[in-house]
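Box 3.1 A note on notation
Throughout this textbook, protein chains are presented in two layers. The first layer is the amino acid sequence; the second is a token string describing backbone geometry. Keep the layers aligned when reading.
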Amino acid sequence: MSDGLKQRIAGALVLGALGLIILPVLFDFADPLKVDRSSKLPPAPEIKAEQVVKAERPTGVPEKSLLSSIFDVEKSQPVDDNSEKNYGLNSSDLPNAWVVQVSSFAQKSAAEEFMNRLRKQKFKAFIKSAMVKNKTRYRVYVGPKIDKRRALKDKSDIDAAFKTDSIVLQYIP
């Protein structure tokens, strides 16, 4: 055997050995569909249920909400456009609230019908009864609004749509 042939065979053996060592490192011949089912997460902690005690109203707190008085339309009165701020807090640290008195009716059924017409136009309407000259009147209101500009916009929209002359009222404690 010639010397060159021996070198070629030795080189082929060295390359084959290197291929057997390096090929498994470069390529992963493991099953790609095999899922690792071992978990490295710790077990769930033991959770103890706690009893929650229901909160009780302190003795010094009144039962009636302070905010309910802001929407009392019985104490509402007309306001001049330049006399009050458009928004903010009043002297009692409650938000200024505005309602639009749209109409007043002698019959409750007529007031309810008009309220439903307003609601169909997406206005938040409600009815309050009031004594006027010893007669019960049913007033239809829209609101309340925290921003006077929104109440004035509702007033103009309602006046145009229903041919009324509504007024904007503010609650003053």
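Residues 70-171 form a domain with the Alpha-Beta Plaits fold (CATH 3.30.70.1070). The CA atoms of residues 85 and 148 lie 8 Å apart.
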